[in-house]
From TrEMBL:
InterPro entries attached to this UniProt entry: Bact_Sigma-Reg, GAF, GAF-like_dom_sf, PAS, PAS-like_dom_sf, PAS_4, PPM-type-like_dom_sf, PPM-type_phosphatase-like_dom
Species, as recorded: Streptomyces leeuwenhoekii
Role of this protein: Primarily acts as an independent SigF regulator that is sensitive to the osmosensory signal, mediating the cross talk of PknD with the SigF regulon. Possesses both phosphatase and kinase activities. The kinase domain functions as a classic anti-sigma factor-like kinase to phosphorylate the anti-anti-sigma factor domain at the canonical regulatory site, and the phosphatase domain antagonizes this activity.
Protein name: protein-serine/threonine phosphatase
Keyword Nucleotide-binding set for record: yes
Entries under SMART domains matching the protein: GAF, PAS, PP2C_SIG
Length: 784
């Protein structure tokens, strides 16, 4: 191909328009036409080396006489030619440019606040962001932490990423730094994510933090203004891709650049961020073995089959994401070795191609089969790795359903999901998306009959079934019910350890041809889903058993005692079997007398819960005999030592005499209770502690007596409320007492809520917690 062979069209960046911004029908102000868009213009300087407009677009050359103002515009990365991006995109792109970030992303919270959806992207193709297009706010990711904790999350290096976010580091193995900052105004709207090459310092300056924070406030204001006008940026299947690029070059510098590239030894070419070839020199054409017409506008690994290797594509991905030069050696058949050097920036990649001066690798990778054999793209491999890592972190069946719906469905462009288990010869639906409830009612409980449904056949044979259209479904499975208006299906059996555990059905609103590559990836993913699904079912079964056992051992309700208001709460640890040994009880002894008890059996398992039931029964038996607090603990202690258990128990027992307005307490190594006087003064009660139950059969338990005036509040609790790693126990108890003194005792349940918040135990808990609150109501004074 000769330079100047004829007029051609090439993309260029236009300068911002001076016309005022317009407003879209959604109420969101839109960008003026011309900002952050690509137009196709005549460029004789580079001739036929520049790409033609994409198919379906009309170039300027195709409409002679049109003025430049009438040239069709293309929003980068979208499927629509309309420029409705809005001021939000402009503010976002300006933030990326001013911070010097190489890649930026804006996530918006869904209405339920449980999911972050990628709305706008800058500096990378949308394909790269596919694994993170939808991020659960509860997930282990920087953007999730930023929105959940309301703070700026900084990751200064890949090593820090590996320590803090191992799953993200595994599927993003490039040297980089990033920050995730919540976009917050009157409410939290989402998260701004910015990424830099690893060449920047591994820390953020105060000025940088301030600028990012102000940018987030600006984005929040734009979102709030849009919401006030009744509009909101509509979520799309793919994020909008904008650019923070600068203006275009004139024809003269373009001609000089082309001449410069032609004079260099070897070959030169340019790729955009999507990976398409936008310029190629004659030297590069000679080395690559193709003419310019066969290369321009194509992806190298598609137009050059010998580059169709995930390793080669990964070099390109590494250059785009890390913004650092990448070099590698490839073999052009039959035996010519080439060195390729990639030099990236925010607008694309410059590539130098030269003959390799060294010997070829001693063991080149074997050639993969061609033709109909499946060819996994690097992007799909990363996405599969990301999903596999995510599946290892799910806990319950609902977590599996949510993950498949939020990440696997969008990855394959599916609009429907049905996840079923095999139970007694029938399919029981455990989760679904994209179907009306009436359709699910028809599908739930269908027989696993190989001749009736593709789901039954796939489950019984272990072979996936792919149905591209309704005609194929009616031809092969005439009796299968067609519900929900779907028109293509993938039936993926969930097989683990050689046994079927269920089936995952992905469906489409229109006909869908399943390529061999797509079938291979779906089949591989089904195996991972099966393992996660089986683990989740086992977890749910154990969880239900543990929850039922815990509820059976704790009192279903507390007795009514005249003159006493009572509230109680039990919270299991957030790790383990969701069961523990903490317990509480209130025992009515007679008119105006009662016993309150709280305890903690060592451990968080079924054995601890079982022993807790025995301790509670022992305390109850001794208390109803009218024995004193120290004798109640003495008898219970002997019971535990006789049982020979290896688990120890702390316990606090109080005898309440509302008529005499006195309380007598005894403790077996339990944290002291808190009391709040009617005047608001609050403090721990000095109860001399005895030894833990179950250690010494001859142990003695001292008692303490305190006044019990009307208006007094007593708080009994277990150590899970006050023990925090790295914190002094006495300080924690004193802080809790201070909060109790400032609290209102009109509603004891609200008082417990406040104590839990003060202790910081409303989220993750390493230990279970039991709380029992007693309030002595105002009553008549005792006789005498």
């Amino acid at each position: 191909m000769r330079r100047g062979a004829g007029p051609a069209s090439r993309p260029r960046r236009t300068a911002p328009s001076s016309r005022p911004s317009q407003t879209s029908t959604t109420g969101v102000p839109t960008l003026p036409r011309g900002r952050n868009v690509l137009v196709w213009e005549r460029a004789d300087a580079l001739g036929a080396r520049t790409p033609q407009p994409p198919p379906g677009r009309t170039s300027a050359r195709g409409r002679p006489g049109d003025s430049p103002a009438l040239l069709e515009v293309l929003v980068t990365g979208t499927d629509d030619p309309a420029t409705d991006a809005g001021e939000l995109d402009a503010a976002f792109a300006e933030t990326v440019r001013r911070t010097g970030a190489s890649i930026g992303a804006l996530y918006l919270l869904d209405p339920g606040g449980q999911l972050l959806r990628l709305e706008v992207l800058c500096g990378a193709p949308a394909e790269f962001a596919a694994p993170w297009a939808r991020v659960p706010t509860a997930g282990p990711a920087p953007v999730a932490d930023a929105v959940r904790e309301g703070r700026m999350v900084w990751v200064g290096s890949h090593e820090e990423m590996a320590r803090s976010y191992p799953r993200t580091a595994m599927v993003l193995p490039y040297p980089l730094a990033l920050v995730a900052a919540p976009v917050t105004g009157v409410r939290t709207w989402g998260v701004l994510l910015l990424m830099w090459p690893a060449t920047r310092p591994p820390y953020m300056t105060g000025r940088e933090r301030g600028h990012i924070a102000s940018s987030c406030r600006r984005l929040a204001r734009l979102l709030e203004e849009a919401a006030e006008h009744g509009g909101f940026p509509a979520s799309r299947a793919r994020p909008r891709v904008v650019t923070a690029g600068a203006g275009h070059r004139t024809a003269s510098p373009a001609m000089a650049a082309a001449d410069f590239a032609e004079r260099l030894p070897g070959g030169s070419c340019a790729l955009d961020l999507e990976g398409r070839i936008t310029y190629v020199s004659s030297g590069a054409c000679e080395l690559l073995g193709r003419d310019a017409d066969g290369l321009l506008g194509t992806l190298p690994w598609q137009s050059l089959r010998w580059l169709d290797d995930p390793v080669c594509e990964d070099h390109y991905r590494a250059a785009v994401i890390s913004r650092e030069p990448v070099s590698f050696t490839v073999c052009r058949p039959p035996g010519r070795w080439l060195e390729i050097h990639l030099y990236p920036d925010a607008s694309g990649i410059s590539a130098r191609i030269i003959p390799s001066g060294g010997r070829p690798p001693p063991s080149p990778a074997p050639r993969r089969p061609t033709g109909t054999a499946a060819r996994a793209r690097a992007g799909q491999l990363y996405q599969l790795t990301h999903l596999a890592a995510a599946l290892t972190e799910v806990v319950g069946v609902q977590d599996v359903v949510d993950l498949v719906a939020d990440q696997i469905m969008p990855a394959f462009g599916a609009q429907g999901l049905v996840l079923s288990t095999a139970d007694a010869g029938r399919l029981r639906i455990t989760g679904y998306r994209g179907y009306p409830p009436s359709a699910i009612e028809r599908l739930d409980g269908l027989s696993v009959d190989t001749g009736l449904t593709p789901a039954g056949r796939a489950l019984s044979t272990g072979v996936p079934a792919f149905v591209p259209d309704p005609e194929e479904m009616r031809r092969v499975y005439p009796e299968a019910p067609l519900v929900g208006g779907k028109r293509a299906w993938a039936f993926l059996p969930l097989i683990t350890s050689g046994r079927p555990v269920g089936i995952c059905v992905l469906s489409y609103d229109g006909p869908h041809t399943f390529s061999a590559e797509e079938r291979a990836v779906m089949t591989s993913l089904a195996g991972l889903v099966a393992q996660a699904f089986d683990r989740a079912r086992l977890y749910d079964t154990k969880h239900e058993l543990a929850h039922g056992l815990q509820q059976a051992l704790l009192p279903h309700s507390l007795p009514a005692v005249t003159g006493l208001r009572v509230a109680a709460r039990y919270l299991p640890a957030t790790r383990g079997m969701d069961i523990g040994g903490d317990f509480y009880d209130l025992i009515r002894l007679g008119d105006g007398t009662a016993a309150a008890v709280i305890g903690d059996v060592q451990g968080h398992n079924v054995a601890a819960a079982a022993l807790m039931g025995q301790v509670r029964s022992g305390v109850h038996a001794h208390a109803t005999l009218g024995t004193s607090p120290d004798q109640v603990l003495l008898g219970t202690n002997r019971l535990l030592t006789d049982l020979g258990t290896d688990l120890f128990t702390s316990c606090l027992y109080a005898h309440l005499d509302l008529g005499r307005r006195r309380a007598t307490l005894a403790s077996a190594g339990h944290p002291p209770p808190l009391l709040r006087l009617p005047d608001g003064d609050a403090r721990p009660v000095a109860v001399p502690p005895g030894p833990l139950l179950g250690i010494d059969p001859d142990a003695v338990f001292p008692v303490a007596e305190i006044p019990l005036p009307p208006g007094l509040t007593l708080v009994f609790y277990t150590d899970g409320l006050v023990e925090t790693p790295g914190a002094d126990l006495d300080d924690s108890i004193a802080g809790l007492a201070g909060h109790l003194g400032r609290s209102d005792d009109a509603d004891l349940d609200l008082l417990i809520d406040g104590l839990l918040r003060e202790a910081g135990t409303t989220g993750q808990r390493l230990d279970d917690i039991a709380i029992l609150v007693l309030h002595h109501e105002t009553g008549p004074r005792p006789p005498g």
